[in-house]
Amino acid sequence: MLRAQGDMAAKRADTKTFNRRQLLSIRGMRHSGAGTETSGGTWVTVSRTAMACNFKVIVDLQSGRGVRAASECLDEIDRLESILSVFRPSSEISRINSEGAIRPVLAGPELLELLHLCRELHKDSEGAFDITTGSLTECWGFQERSPRLPAVGVLATAREGVGAQLVSVGIDGRVSLRHPGVRINFGGVGKGYALDRGAGKMAGHGIGTALLSGGSSSVVALGAGPDGDGWHVGLKHPAHTDKRMASVRLRSCAMGTSSQEEQWFEESGTRYGHILDPQTGFPPTAVRSVSVITDSAARADALATAFFVGGPVLAERYCSAHRDTVAIMLLAYELSRPIVIGSWDKAIVEVASD
């Protein structure tokens, strides 16, 4: 494990190699104990736990600014967690969820920016992406990591608090909830938004090439990678975890992945996952995994969730209207290989052979 010496800004961050066992794996580099040498320099991974996952930044050690920039990126992610996490009672979003139906609650600039983006994504995804599904997540028990099949009446009550129209943002920056059951949850977009903000910190240090990731679902690729041919990222098959279903090369773009593999339970032979359809209140079943490549990690994360709910029909409609978006989708009835919807010159997708 390589550690930065004499850099106080990096004291809370670990530097280590990327974990290849995660859903997203780096293929374009060979790791050694002291870092990774390529024709473009020596690369290290700086990591920290936040938002219930491991955030990582792969950066060139020889730039002289890389580790410090990565640490500031992770500091920003820490700061955003204190604003956006529903698991922190003192966060801005927790205060809005608890008080917003009683009185308007003043929100900070980051929360307002994210709310406006989520409203836009809700519209563009035809309602498939909806941050007000928090009440559904609670009634299914996924928020407490104790999932269960909800009673019919409990689910019906939870659905009353779902709907983007139930969240109002005033011109004074105050947020109101139009139903006491509304629970905003940024679980489908928060990590991506944090990575986008962290990437801004990297750019502020003049770092033009780096790879940022949040857990096994969110990636921001800055530049064209160590060797200039793109950042190579592998997508693990959700049903056959020893296999890779596709690999991508990313250049100055972002990717988000939605899958039910980490949070699910089985009841009477039926499998239920944590991604919930805001219209029905139930987990979708037609899709097993979706990865979306587009211009920002927040947008990629949100669209991956939306396409998981809306399926290939929604993905086709969206990608045909947005030429900077690509979807890699594995359907439940055809697990042998994913389908690729859309194309973009910043992303090269290679589907694994059978």
Largest sheet: 10 strands, antiparallel
Radius of gyration, in angstroms, nearest whole number: 20 Å
Total number of helical segments?
Answer: 7
Q: Name the overall outline.
A: globular
Which structural class fits the helix and strand makeup?
alpha+beta
- What CATH calls the topology of one domain is T-fold
Q: What does this molecule look like?
A:
This protein has 7 helices and 19 strands. With 354 residues, it is of the alpha+beta class. It has a domain at 92-177: ApbE-like superfamily (T-fold, Orthogonal Bundle). The strands form 4 sheets. Strands 1, 3, 4, 5, 9, 10, 13, 16, 17 and 18 form a 10-stranded antiparallel β-sheet that branches. Strands 2-11-12-19 form a 4-stranded antiparallel β-sheet, with no helix packed on it. The chain has a 3-stranded antiparallel β-sheet with strand order 6-8-7, covered by helices on one side.
Concise summary:
The chain has 354 residues and is of the alpha+beta class. It has a domain at 92-177: ApbE-like superfamily (T-fold, Orthogonal Bundle).
Considering the chains and any ligands shown, give keywords for the structure.
single chain, 354 residues, T-fold, 10-stranded antiparallel sheet, globular
SSE map:
Blueprint: E1 14-15, E2 24-26, E3 36-38, E4 41-50, E5 53-60, H1 66-84, H2 92-99, E6 105-106, H3 109-124, H4 134-139, H5 152-159, E7 167-169, E8 174-177, H6 190-204, E9 210-214, E10 218-222, E11 231-236, E12 244-250, E13 253-259, E14 264-267, E15 270-273, E16 287-294, H7 297-321, E17 326-331, E18 334-341, E19 347-351
Antiparallel strand pairs: 1-4, 2-11, 3-4, 4-5, 5-9, 6-8, 7-8, 9-10, 10-13, 11-12, 12-19, 13-16, 14-15, 16-17, 17-18
